[in-house]
Every structure is written in structure tokens, then in C-alpha cells.
Write a structure and sequence with these properties.
Helices cover 36% and strands 26% of the residues. Strand 9 and strand 10 form a beta hairpin. The longest helix is centred in the C-terminal third of the chain and has 20 residues.
Length: 256
């Protein structure tokens, strides 16, 4: 006899519904568009909002802690959201965005490169994932190809080319523990052709597949893992790469 034992007790749609009832606001007042661009850098989100004249949502769940901006760009409504670092918090907020009506999510973040063809300042578009984070296991216990929406991949590749950017598409390693990126693992994953490492992508792709929405990430190479670690955090070089990546994302938004 069928049971509902495998259904979650806490449902994101119910969380949203309860919030709307409690605050007396409507779903549109939250400001979540069908298309959402997320990033883990506050400056990136604010700059995207400024470029598109998007307005800060006064009713978003997380307020200024993880702000949401809502606007119109190239005739399309779009939201920009700052995410918490790491797979669990990112996927939790993605669940709530989806419950509010988001159906396409583009991520703009950072990655450590494992390969010489993806130097600092270049961009990686993850097309498959090696998952060493714990969040995706709660969506798929069996092995699943954690891949993005192919249409979004194609648009990002084209947009990067038109912006004169170097973007490499290929496999990515996602981990929960950036300070445990051990030498033997890095060497093995280099040998396997894995391009880079981050903390969110595989879980985001798992959720996209599970919920049936379009998800894809564009990651700027901020540091390089070879024999020794090399990084460009806080440098003008990386800031310029971030600005270029933002233009790639906005071009992709306009092309959707």
C-alpha cells in the first residue's frame, strides 16, 4: 500500500505560503522573477542590479543578509540574489526561489582551476560534476549525471565568445571542504581532466534536475591549484575578470 513516508515534512511551498500569510504580502511583492541570477559576492549582485536598474526587494525573506533585487533587462524580468557560501545554504534559498516561481537560475561565482588551459581570470562553465558535497545526496541517492541545462550552456559559451572572454566548458569538482583539497586528490583530478573546484555547483545541478528547472553556472577562475597554490583575490586582475563575467551573464539574459 502506497505511503507518503518519503515526502518531506517541511515543504518550501508551504514555507513561502506561511510567510505570505504571516506578513500579509502577496507573492509578486517578494520580487522573484522566473529568471534569477545568483552570486556569492555582494559587490557582484549590487553591480548587476545597478547595471539593470533593479530595485531592492523590501519583502524578501532574508532582507539585507542575502538581498534580492528585481528589475527588467532587455525586456525580461530578472532577479539578482546574493547566496550564502556552500551547497546547503545555496540550495535552501534556491528551493525557496523555485517555490516563488523561479524556473531558470544562472549562477555567477568563482572556482579554483586545476588545468593550465583555465588560468586565473578565465572562465569555466561546468558541464558535469564530481560531487564531494553532502547536499545532492539528499536529492539523489543513486549516481546521477549532475549536468546543467544544455541550452544555457550554449548561450553562455556564445555570450562569452561575443564578449571576447575565454570560457572553457567541462567537468568540475564540488567539495564541502576547501581546506581539504589534498595534493593527491588534485593530482588525480588533474589527470582525469577535471577543470576546477568549487563549493556549490554539483548541488545546484542536482536540485535543477530534481525540480525540473534550468540551471547553469559561469565560474571565474580566482586561484590555481598546481604544484603550489596561486591566487588573485582582491586584485584588479580578478576584478576585471569579474566585470567581464557580469557582461557575459547580462548578454545571456538578453539572449534568453
Amino acid at each position: 500500500m502506497p505511503t507518503n513516508d518519503d515526502e518531506p515534512l517541511v515543504d518550501p511551498k508551504k514555507v513561502v505560503s506561511n510567510y505570505l500569510i504571516r506578513t500579509g504580502i502577496s507573492l509578486p511583492q517578494l520580487g522573484v522573477a522566473p529568471l534569477v541570477v545568483v552570486s556569492w559576492g555582494r559587490n557582484v549582485v549590487q553591480r548587476l542590479a545597478e547595471q539593470t536598474q533593479a530595485q531592492l526587494s523590501q519583502h524578501w525573506f532574508y532582507g539585507d543578509r542575502h538581498p534580492l533585487f528585481h528589475g527588467v533587462y532587455a525586456g525580461r524580468t530578472v532577479s539578482f540574489v546574493q547566496m550564502p557560501v556552500g551547497a546547503p545554504g545555496t540550495v535552501m534559498i534556491m528551493e525557496e526561489l523555485i517555490a516563488c516561481g523561479a524556473s531558470t537560475i544562472l549562477g555567477l561565482g568563482w572556482t579554483g582551476s586545476l588545468q593550465p588551459e583555465a588560468p586565473i581570470g578565465s572562465m569555466i562553465i561546468p558541464t558535469t560534476c564530481l560531487s564531494e558535497e553532502g547536499t545532492s545526496l539528499h536529492y539523489f541517492e543513486e549516481e546521477v549525471n549532475l549536468a546543467p541545462d544544455p541550452g544555457l550552456v550554449a548561450l553562455l559559451v556564445k555570450s562569452a565568445r561575443l564578449e571576447g572572454a575565454t570560457a572553457v566548458a567541462g567537468p568540475l569538482w564540488t567539495t564541502d571542504a576547501p581546506y581539504r583539497e589534498l595534493r593527491y586528490k588534485v593530482s588525480e583530478y588533474q589527470r582525469q581532466g577535471i577543470l576546477g573546484v568549487d563549493m556549490e555547483t554539483s548541488a545546484m545541478y542536482a536540485l535543477g534536475i530534481f525540480r525540473g528547472i534550468r540551471v547553469c553556472n559561469l565560474l571565474v577562475v580566482s586561484d590555481q591549484l598546481a604544484e603550489e597554490w596561486d591566487e588573485a583575490f582582491g586584485t584588479e586582475r580578478l576584478q576585471e575578470a569579474n566585470r567581464l563575467a557580469q557582461q557575459v551573464v547580462l548578454r545571456t539574459v538578453s539572449a534568453l
